[in-house]
Design a protein that fits this description.
The protein is of the alpha+beta class and 132 residues long. 30% of the residues lie in helices and 25% in strands. The mean pLDDT is 89.
Length: 132
């Protein structure tokens, strides 16, 4: 099959074949791969993006530990559970580039992720007797 234009459908066809093949090849090196942000531009060009992670690496934990003290947290707060509006979350990431909602919590039951303010997480920790 030869594509004459690059559009959403064409990119999806390529991704459906490329991701499993790339996953298999990179597994030989102990590297994991996931889909990045792919896009098509003008009908004749597109970008397939993949993110690779070294074996045993935990980029979200590393990012959290890098920025924790600047936000008033400890590196050990990564993964700590807290409650907001009677819902349990685990502190799973930090996005320091987001000034209003840089804290990311994962809902314990569903695994869905939600953004929080620094103050909301600190208040939740304080309510549970944990000093951030």
């Amino acid at each position: 099959m030869q594509l004459k234009t690059i559009d959403r459908t064409g990119l999806q066809l390529m991704l459906d074949k490329a991701l499993p093949a790339l996953t298999e090849v990179l597994a030989m090196y102990g590297v994991s791969v996931k889909l990045g942000r792919s896009k098509y531009t003008n009908g004749s060009t597109g970008t397939l993006a993949f993110e690779v992670t070294a074996a045993g690496a935990d980029p979200e934990r590393e990012e959290f530990e890098r920025w924790a003290s600047l936000m008033g947290f400890e590196p050990s707060d990564f993964g700590r559970e807290f409650t907001v509006n009677n819902v349990r979350y685990a502190l799973c990431a930090m996005a320091p580039g987001r000034s209003k909602y840089p804290m990311i919590g994962e809902r314990s039951i569903t695994g869905a992720r939600y953004k929080f303010t620094v103050d909301a997480v600190k208040r939740a920790f304080a309510a549970e007797g944990v000093k951030p």
